[in-house]
Specification:
single chain, three-stranded mixed beta sheet, about 15% strand
């Protein structure tokens, strides 16, 4: 793991991705975010095909002026449909750049056919970057002291 070469497939090993149906209620969405302790869910009718992504921010942004209507709304009413995805061979550095430039905090990971594999959060990316920096620091310290 030298210098920003960690691949996303290392981050998603054994990591589940939580999905929600586009027809689910906002109540179900909020409950799912809470139960799974995640900031976003991939919107998918079958757990494979991505129709959108919905986050805590989407719920908050839907509230002004619509608080009374929120109970009647569905995930499809507030989800983001132009979902940025990545392949599992993308690097941590690539995702960090995309997330920073586009100001997004979650990126679904797909295979070559576009089938959902997992999801990566900005927290996952930062943790991986810090791990890489720490490994480099240790290697440099060991090199200098030898």
């Amino acid at each position: 793991m030298k210098g920003w070469v960690m691949k996303i497939n290392q981050l998603i090993a054994g990591k589940r991705v939580e999905t929600i149906s586009p027809s689910a209620s906002i109540h179900d969405l909020v409950n799912a975010l809470n139960v799974h302790q995640v900031g976003a869910l991939v919107v998918s009718p079958d757990g494979r095909k991505i129709e959108g992504i919905v986050s805590e921010r989407d719920v908050v942004r839907a509230m002004p002026g619509k608080l009374n209507q929120l109970v009647e709304m569905h995930v499809r009413d507030i989800m983001t449909v132009g979902v940025v995805t990545c392949k599992n061979d993308a690097t941590v550095a690539e995702l960090m750049l995309i997330m920073t430039e586009r100001r997004i905090r979650h990126i679904p990971v797909v295979d070559d056919s576009g089938v959902l594999l997992s999801i990566v959060s900005i927290g996952d990316v930062i943790k991986a970057h810090v791990t890489e920096l720490d490994a480099e620091r240790t290697a440099l310290r060991d090199y200098v002291s030898s």
